[in-house]
Amino acid sequence: MKLVLPKKISWLFLILFFIFDNVVSYIAVTRMRGKEADLLIAFAVEKYPLLYFVLIPVQTVIVYFIIIGLTKLAVRVFKKFDIEEGIFEKIILTAAVIFWPIANSFMNLMFILGHRLTIPAWYGLIVTGAVTASAYFYAVAKFLSKRRSR
Description:
Elements (H helix, E strand, L loop, with lengths): L6 H25 L10 H4 L5 H27 L7 H28 L6 H31 L1
Helix pairs in contact: 1-3, 1-4, 3-4, 4-5
């Protein structure tokens, strides 16, 4: 039974999510009178929507460094689990693959289907995605730790 995705598959999924989200956001802003929910980039992409396409590699690099940082943090915080750094990285990447579609892609999908969610709803999706991904991370790390200690 596989509990974690291989790194290449996780990155492929994440990049596909980034492409999907940015293409849908571009279409929403340019053709459907949509507004960008992410206040960090809204001022720029609403004025220059082509920036959505530049953001795809930027997001990938940012998420890469977040994954590296979270992996280092997990190794330190969860020493008792006695799990190798590479395994932690795979668990965190899989958690990111769980988090991203819940926290971001779902809102874009709903917009395409004609349902306009509010910005507070997006924040709720972020929390839901974070809780789900965190629960996955902890459950899998604990399971692998117990399995390893046998």
